Amino acid sequence: MAEFVSFGETMMVFSPGSPGPLKYKHNYSCKAAGAETNTLIGVRKLGHSAGWIGRLGSDGPGEFVLNQIRAEGIDTDRVVLDSRYATGIMIKQLCSHGETSVFYYRDGSAFCHVSLTEADYHFLSGARIFHFTGITPVLCRTCREELDKLLSFCRTKKIPVSFDPNIRLKLWKDNDYRDLMKHYIALSDYIMLGVREAGIIFGEASIDTYADKIRSLSPSLSFLAVKNGAEGAYVYDKAAAHFIKPFPCTSIDPVGAGDAFNAGFLTGILEHHDLKTCGKIAAICGALATETTGDVEGLPEREELMYYLSSVPRAPER
């Protein structure tokens, strides 16, 4: 059984070889990317077992994604290949100033036809943490219904739940999902969100105000992290709060940094570290993830993390 389990969509991603409008691009690299599997891979690289409950098309992109995730050591026994529907696709557009925009082709994808079985719940039953994001419930009604069943199972089995709203306004379209995000915050034990996301959900306020609002919503909250990119992060438990300084890095692509932060923070929780150490591990993982153009290639292995946690400020070039 995996210690850390997640449920969500992972897509095949096409990335152009250089910045600029896609209409002028001819050469692309292919990768797999999904917020949930990014976090799973981060936790796995740090030495913990991780499993994915998902659904892909029984097509070339689906087999590609499955191979990529399996190669990272993720347990994919509960991933279904669906012959009726296609794997979701995402195309990145790189801007010269370092920002990335995306185009989604995931409406009606195989994952949107997910249907959980008794074996999926058995797979989850041994987990120490179940992790999900706010992406999954806004994809379609079926995704939300199946997620809610998993969360109900977690409550019954007393499996701690981890949540990152991970807001993608392109997926919200014309809908307002702020109350839905609050609903999932109220069900979660560990919460990680960015300052921008907190502002969308709660309106403009200070970081401490966000923390107070989240605490008031979630009676079972044990750990909270409010991420603020290159400005650092704030972490909270029931008794303390700490500012976590950003870890020095040379950022190339910020996509995936939040998922990497989550992986580090949750690894700290799995290992029963104190709050501040959990935050430091998260900051290291988040920073290193930005030093490559992929979502997971920069995630540290266990030995590398331990080096960075030592008194030495930075290791030689990777």
Give your account of this protein's structure.
With 318 residues, the chain is α/β, with parallel strands linked by helices. The protein has one domain (4-309): Ribokinase (UDP-N-acetylmuramoyl-L-alanine:D-glutamate ligase). The protein has 12 helices and 13 strands. The protein has helices at 35-45, 60-71, 118-125, 136-139, 141-157, 169-172, 178-186, 195-202, 207-217, 257-270, 275-289, 302-309; strands at residues 4-7, 11-16, 28-33, 50-57, 75-82, 89-94, 100-105, 129-133, 161-164, 190-194, 223-227, 233-236, 241-244. Strands 5-4-1-8-9-10-11-12-13 form a 9-stranded mixed β-sheet, with helices on both faces. Strand 4 (50-57), helix 2 and strand 5 (75-82) form a beta-alpha-beta unit. Helix 1 (35-45) packs across helix 10 and helix 10 runs antiparallel to helix 11 (275-289). The radius of gyration is 18 Å and the shape is globular.
CATH top-level class: Alpha Beta
The amount of helix comes to 25-40%
**Largest sheet, spatial ordering of strands:** 5-4-1-8-9-10-11-12-13
Please mark out the parts with pLDDT under 50 across 5 or more consecutive residues, or reply none: none
Strand content: 15-25%
Annotated CATH homologous superfamily: Ribokinase
Order of helices and strands: EEEHEHEEEHEHHEHHEHHEEEHHH
* Count of alpha/pi helices: 12
What would you say the CATH architecture is? 3-Layer(aba) Sandwich
Q: Let me know the largest β-sheet.
A: 9 strands, mixed
Structurally, how many domains make up the residues?
A: 1
Rg calc: 18 Å
Would you tell me the overall average pLDDT?
94
Principal-axis shape: globular
Structural class: alpha/beta
- CATH T-level topology: UDP-N-acetylmuramoyl-L-alanine:D-glutamate ligase
N-C termini distance: 33 Å
DSSP summary, beta strand count: 13
